[in-house]
Design goal:
Ribosomal Protein S5, domain 2, 5-stranded parallel β-sheet
């Protein structure tokens, strides 16, 4: 007999529909899987057989052939186990074939017959054409996020069998609370009031959060660069519905733990170590294409501490994602597009010894400083909107700090500026297209003359020109000013972009 059950497999962060076809016919007893399965998928024959025996089900003593269609797409992982088992039950007549019509199955089988969660359930449920999807109970909250699908949770293979026979027994998804179910707990990010002094760096952090502008902090060790960066997620507003679904899909595909609600509602914060490889940062791999750190930071913050210690070849791979917001990972058999729309915050020392020009204590020779500066190329630095020199905090401010503004007060201003950007049809001002700058961020006469002088002297590049105008627009939004962009806001934007020239004496455009 022949039976077919819909399911899906994961490719990158997207699901691809798969028809699991099982044929049970005469011949020597055996079990084979065809259709480009990987090693984990081929091992389903052992997991399914053990699950049948543990569930008290008879194993067919005939020839069993499983085809995973379409055959030209590689199938990875164990997410097709449950679909194979259900198709085998239908093909052997253990259940009526009509009982599985319009129903898809996703999940891994344990040897004891339990149904276990698999990565990427949100993308897999989106991919299947069936209106009803049976998933592991642990993934039920995540699966219920997909509109137009009815998600049912299963704990064991025996439970699925009884539900197919009687139409009852599976766990239905609980309704989401009113108000889109957005029950957001306080973010664990440090409070900005814990940062002593650093008025310029605090202002730059607020501008970065309000406009989505990439930020580079340069200063000696202990000046507060890492603390400032870790405060940034607490200034960002909660994710919108579309952003939350996109972020959840990426985290699910990577196998990261999700909140109890199944939905990632706060901007993620990723801080990879400087020893990470290009594949770990960008995604891909020789096996299943897994999203990298830049994708896991989508709609959130990617923090690169000790930027000068990252291999230059790894840092240069960031240039295209910073411009495009996506990554095309191409391989011989397939290519996937991974999201990469993140806010980049980086911290670096001004020189190899880290002391820079602080009190003349630097132990680096000019050649050492120059080699260190060359690790960060001019094209990469040009993609930072804000480059800020972080100085050591005076002893008086460390021992007797004045009352600093809390994150909640800054976050309120950031949220107001983001609402102004949303009224322009933007997520944030950093995403303002260049061809709309004249309409949405026109320049006053003095501001235009200042930019002309900077361009004429070569202190500002064409890319830097657009980025400075976007930062000036964010500064105007934070101050409640209306366009055209005033000279004062443009001056501050230029100063915030030029502040990291302390990096081995290098200027910035």
């Amino acid at each position: 007999m022949l039976a077919s059950v819909p399911s899906a497999t994961l490719l990158g962060v997207q699901g691809r529909p798969v028809a699991v076809e099982v044929h049970v016919g005469p011949g020597l007893p055996g079990f084979s899987i065809v259709g480009l399965p990987d090693a984990a998928c081929r091992e389903a024959r052992d997991r399914v057989r053990a699950a049948f025996v543990s569930s008290g089900l008879a194993w067919p003593t005939r020839r069993v052939t499983v085809n995973l269609a379409p055959s030209g797409i590689r199938k990875a992982g164990a997410g097709l186990d449950l679909a194979i088992a259900v198709a085998l039950l239908a093909a052997t007549g253990a259940v009526d074939g009509r009982a599985v019509d319009g129903c898809a199955f996703l999940g891994e089988l344990g040897l004891d017959g339990s149904v276990r969660p698999v990565p990427g359930v949100l993308a897999l449920v989106e991919a299947v054409a069936a209106k009803t999807v049976v998933v592991p109970v642990a993934s039920l909250a995540e699966a219920s996020l997909v509109p137009g699908r009815r998600a049912l949770g299963a704990r064991t293979l025996r439970e699925v069998l009884e539900a197919l026979r009687t139409g009852e027994g599976l766990v239905d998804a609980a309704p989401r609370p009113a108000g889109d179910g957005r029950n957001i707990a306080p973010h664990p990010a440090p409070d900005l009031s814990a940062v002593h002094g650093q008025l310029v760096a605090r202002r730059a952090l607020e501008v970065a959060a309000a406009g989505g502008h990439h930020l580079l902090l340069s200063g000696p060790p202990g000046s507060g660069k890492t603390m400032l960066a870790r405060c940034l997620p607490g200034l960002l507003p909660a994710l919108g519905p579309a952003e939350a679904l996109e972020t959840t899909k990426v985290h699910s595909a990577a196998g990261l733990p999700l909140p109890a609600s199944g939905l990632v509602e706060r901007p993620p914060f990723r801080a990879p170590h400087h020893s990470c490889s290009a594949v770990a940062l960008l995604g891909g791999g020789s096996g299943p294409m897994r999203p990298g750190e830049v994708s896991l930071a989508t709609n959130g913050v990617l923090f690169l501490d000790e930027l000068g210690e990252f291999p230059p070849s790894v840092l240069e791979t960031l240039r295209q994602p910073l411009e495009d917001g996506t990554i095309l990972v191409a391989r011989a058999r397939a290519s996937v597009v991974l999201p990469a729309r993140f806010l980049l915050v980086a911290a670096t020392n001004p020189c190899p010894c880290g002391l820079g020009d602080a009190r003349g204590a630097c132990r680096c020779s000019p050649s050492m400083r120059e080699r260190y500066a060359r690790r960060l190329s001019a094209p990469l630095l040009d993609r930072f909107d804000l480059l800020v020199a972080v100085r050591r905090v005076p002893e008086r401010e460390l021992l007797d700090p004045a009352g600093a503004e809390r994150s909640c007060a800054v976050a309120a201003r950031v949220a107001a500026a983001r609402r102004l950007a949303a009224a322009r049809g933007l997520r944030c001002n950093a995403e303002l297209p260049s061809d709309r700058l004249e309409d949405l961020a026109p320049l006053s006469g003095p501001a235009r003359r200042l930019l002309e002088a900077r361009l004429r002297s070569g202190a500002l590049s064409a890319r830097g020109l657009d980025r400075v105008r976007r930062v000036a627009l964010t500064l105007a939004d934070l101050d409640g000013a209306q366009p055209p962009i005033a000279w004062e806001h443009l001056v501050v934007a230029l100063e915030l972009r030029a502040g990291a020239g302390v990096l081995a004496g290098r200027g910035s455009s």
